[in-house]
Design a protein that fits this description.
Layout: H1 2-13, E1 24-30, H2 31-48, E2 51-57, H3 59-67, E3 74-77, H4 79-88, E4 97-102, E5 104-109, H5 120-129, E6 133-136, H6 143-155, H7 158-161, E7 165-168, H8 174-178, E8 184-188, E9 198-203, E10 212-218, H9 225-235, H10 238-246, E11 250-251
Parallel strand pairs: 1-2, 1-3, 6-7, 6-8
Antiparallel strand pairs: 3-10, 4-10, 4-11, 5-8, 5-9
Helix pairs in contact: 1-2, 1-10
Length: 252
């Protein structure tokens, strides 16, 4: 797939050789979309000669950084976050596009028995029986953590689960699961697929599933606007489609 991606990128950008005017672009991305960006960066750099400096965080963490004045060229965030920054002048109007969507899934440690989560009642029972349940700390601004915390209330099991909850402030809930700190982990599918030491049990039941959509935009103060837009073109192009599928995501 790597060769195919490289050909897609070169074709999409109209390049067969490296750009003589190499630039360095800074990309800020939500953690869940980081794997997609990481997969596309090497061939983009090879095809263009540009360098991508990548950093990530939860939606809330990135918003605090952008609001605090941190400079960047490309931002991957929620559609609403990008739209709000267009209104405030931090993202260039017309540069934004939706990239992908991803649902929430359940994981256990590799080799551990898989609980039944085939229905809402089965999912509730699995959480109640588990000795510990891991998910993103909602206070960190992670979209899956915020959703899970509200879901527990909606299902009427918050008081039973919160005392044994193991909260991850950022990064991967899979770290808690493979370390044995959480018997069951709940995170976005893209944060489970491909993670060593854990097994995806499956997505949340349809009736309580939640999809997070990711969008991209160009900084209105981008120092390397042309190179940054070239990278956005890759993120929204055919080269990204195969990567999205392999990372547990769907096209937006």
């Amino acid at each position: 797939m790597k060769i195919e991606i490289g050909l897609f990128i070169a074709a999409a950008l109209g390049m067969g050789v490296q750009n003589a005017a190499a630039a360095e672009i800074k990309v800020l991305t939500t953690g869940a979309f980081k794997q997609v960006v990481v997969a596309l960066v090497p061939e983009f750099e090879k095809a263009t000669g540009h360098k991508v400096v990548l950093d990530n965080g939860t939606v809330g963490q990135l918003q605090k950084r952008v609001d605090g004045g941190e400079s960047f060229d490309v931002l991957v965030l929620s559609p609403k976050g990008i739209e709000d920054y267009i209104k405030s002048g931090k993202i260039a109007a017309g540069s934004n596009a939706n990239l992908a969507k991803v649902g929430v899934g359940v994981m256990v440690k590799e080799g551990a028995p898989k609980p039944d989560i085939s229905s809402v009642d089965a999912f509730k029972t699995a959480l109640i029986k588990a000795k510990s349940v891991g998910y993103i700390d909602p206070a960190s601004g992670g979209s899956s953590g915020i959703y899970v915390d509200k879901l527990l209330e909606r299902l009427g099991i918050a008081e039973q689960i919160r005392p044994k909850a193991k909260l991850q402030k950022g990064g991967h809930v899979s770290d808690l699961v493979k370390a044995g700190e959480a018997e069951i982990g709940i995170h976005q599918n893209s944060e489970i697929v491909g993670q060593a030491g854990v097994t995806l049990v499956g997505p949340l039941p349809k009736d309580i599933q939640n999809y997070t959509t990711y969008a991209v935009g160009l900084s209105s103060d981008a120092k390397q606007a042309e190179a940054a837009m070239a990278f956005i073109k890759v993120l929204t192009g055919p080269s990204a489609a195969a990567v999205l599928k392999s990372k547990g995501m769907e096209g937006a």
